[in-house]
Amino acid sequence: MAEHPNAQLEELAALLVGTPYRPLQLLGRGAIGDVYMVEHEFLGKKFALKRIHARCAALPGFVERARLEAQALGRLQHPNVVEVIEYWPSQRGVPCLVLELLRGRALREELLRQGRLPETRAVTIAQEVLAGLEAAHALGIVHRDIKPENVFLHHPPGFEMVTKVLDFGLARVLLDVSAAPPAAHEVRTATGALVGSPRYYSPEAIRREPVDHRADLFGVGLILYEMLTGRGPYDLDRVLPPSELTPGLSSGLDAVVMRSLQESRRA
Q: Among 126, 96, 134, which Cα is nearest to 214's?
């Protein structure tokens, strides 16, 4: 039976004792943690807080690896990556991560509404995702799970939409310390554990090879194809150039997309 939202907020409030944050509402639930809207009591500003599940925090080495990863992500300052504000392990040993609060919707929700996106908008989103990934890769951070659910179309009040890449790092931390058997929906990484979504597996992940930044670039190719055509490149018996599914695309875009979908170690 699902826990009542009020009970969840009360539990989170207990974890936040001694901090300036107070919980407001549950925003979403994930495999690694739940995300809440919280308010800084002194600043009166709202943030998103990700509370890691206790079962993850209980894995040997998880909290220390999460701390190191949060430090790395704290250095990642880029307009196309969700900003990490603060990190701490609660008195109960449960890691909490404070993030900037985004307003808008995930790219997955947009695709479900629209089917496919206009070329200019799709290309802009892909370019902004690539810009965020480039900044991350420069710090040695690899996302490993680029998919529409992890791309957010942020609409800050009074400003134009900006694309934000979500969920850097914590999935990788879980991989590096987990000794549990791999789940069927995950992809194996260099550490021998698995992460990701089958629809967005990179060739390296499918071959059970070490995964690096090239897997992220492959992921961008997949979501660009989906934005342009309304379907994944592997939904049919063979991969068709996007213009065969969406006539009228700009000359040269086919080549860019198809190259991004090549097996990246051979590209």
A: 134
Does the active-site annotation cover 237? no
Looking from the CA of 134 toward its CB, the CA atoms found within 13 Å total 8
Q: Which of 34, 145, 167, 216 is catalytic?
A: 145
Q: What is the pLDDT along the chain (267 residues), one digit of tens a residue?
A: 455 567 888 888 888 888 999 999 999 888 788 999 999 999 999 999 998 888 888 888 888 878 877 887 888 899 999 999 999 887 777 888 999 999 999 999 999 999 999 999 999 999 999 999 999 998 888 888 899 999 999 999 889 999 999 987 565 656 566 544 333 223 333 344 444 566 777 777 677 777 788 889 999 999 999 999 999 998 888 889 999 999 999 989 999 999 998 755 444
CA torsion 96→99→103→107, rounded to 10°? Answer: -90
All structural domains of the chain, each given as residue ranges with its CATH number in brackets, are: 5-100 (3.30.200.20), 104-260 (1.10.510.10)
pTM of the model: 0.83
